[in-house]
User: Fold these one by one.
Assistant:
Number 1:
Amino acid sequence: MPAALRQGLAGTIWCLLVPVAVLGSYLVLVMICAAWVTSPVLAGTIAGVVVMIVFGGVRLLRPTWLSFGPEVLPAAATPGSGPGSRSPRC
């Protein structure tokens, strides 16, 4: 499989699965909080604070865990680079 196609598929999967996983886990957390606390507003507030603390902490301590970094291609594999290529003029 070519590197460009592999990068495109990884980016697409990342962009589709991460929001679905985040939304699903948030809804599960809200249901757990709603079973624990009788007020749905308070349950949603508690879930929001828990999500903010968890993702904020992960984002501060391990920022690479929540970011998609595409594979770095060598200069020879990058389109438009190499001995026969010309740089665009402004």
Number 2:
Amino acid sequence: MSFLVLVAALLLSRHRAGEGAAALFARWRQVVGSLPAEGWRLPLLLFAGPAAVGAAGLACAVLGAPWLYWLLALGVLVTCLADPELHRRADAFLDDLRRRDLQAAWHEVQALGAGCAADWRELHAASLAQIAHRHLRARFCPFFWFALLGAPGALFYRLAAEAGEARPQDGRLAALVTFLEWLPVRLFGASLALVGNFGPVVAELRAAGWAKSTDAAVLAGRLVRAALSGSRAVDPGPEGEIAELEALPALLDRATLSWLALVALGVLAS
């Protein structure tokens, strides 16, 4: 049943804008950002939502209505998969590149969380890293934690990730998000290796190794670039940027489908 919920949530998230979920997460970031640096409020809020979903699941089991929990789980997962800003910004970024408007293109990448870039090559790396990382946060990580811990796990991850964006200077929160993303980003790389350039992606995974301090955004960007271009030199100008960005959505869709196929095989094997 969990696999069916994963598939249904993916289909629903692709055919709805997710504006309501985006507004909820925006409000969550405001609440988290207003909390004091120290204290018990943030940990309590992080655990409150997932604990409530878990309690609802137990109540449904006791009442003999598991279907009600699966409906709740579907709603939670669809919410966790929502990131309409990513698609808007990525499309706008690609349009800016086609017009050769570097300033507007950089504005779109900054809105996704990138830092500074001095030339086309740095802009190219930053854009791929941010788009890949946002896709990781809105697809692979919620999928992974849902498959492992159910709806409470997916919700806890997404709340922690959004809180990390709201409080970038919070070391403990950053460490928590790094821990939650450590394995999913490597599974993301394994999926990219299956549907992209296998050798270069595996080389990036080996280079990252088991290091706990590897930044998920940087690693996701490297994995995507390896899957798209492999060992070939990337054109640092707008033509190379446009070509790879046009190929990126199909690559990410194939990686998602390969991950679902692996989950399906695991379900059948069990």
Number 3:
Amino acid sequence: MGLSPAPPEFERGYSSPQPPRASRRPRLLALVAVVVVAGLAAGGAFLFLPDDDERAAPPPPTTAPTRPPSPSATPSTPPPAPTSRPPAPPPAQGPIAALTPPCAGVTEATARRLVPGARSQAAGNTSLTTCTFSSPHGDAKVVRVEKRLFPSGEGGDVSAFAREMLASAIRQAQTSPDQVITVQRRDDLGDDAFHRFKVDKPLRPGGRPETVVAEVTVRVRNALVTVGYSEAAPKTGDPARNEKTCVANAILVLEEVLPGLR
């Protein structure tokens, strides 16, 4: 069996390669641009991402600004202990050198309020004076001011002499033949003081007392001042019911006389 003859040769004409379509080139360029941008983004993320230590550290706590403590909230500190001695007390006043005039200090308004139509009568010397305010109408209301001085020229502690004289006056008041209702020491006047309130004896047996008297005696260093206020006793009831008023009237006069003693 013989070989079949070879097919006749096919002759093709030559044609040059065609250029790629214009529509494919922009697509390729766009794809390349996307790849480049993605790479840059990945690299930028890598550059700016914090490392592991920075990611693990918590953010610092935020604290509100603090205000200065108010003065009331500031704890008070105790004052420092004094390092020096306390100031010395003022020196004691010296003895009174002289008495004021007998009626000095008593205002006319006070005298006329206590004794209507009051007239004054004065007497005395350098160590003892008296001033009496009485009514010209025979009223029982009377104010009497007595001042006594223990002069420093007599030697010794003249204030002690005056203190002893006041103590003696208290003893006499407690043993007075008059009907003494009250004898009471006071600490609100001068250096020493006391007051007494008494009811005079009736003029006839079985009668009522005619007069009540309040006396207040005050010592100021080496001087004694006694103010007496008397008025008619009540016609009925307790004759001592006006004791507080009578004592207050005597103190009113004293408060005007005492400032003159220097």
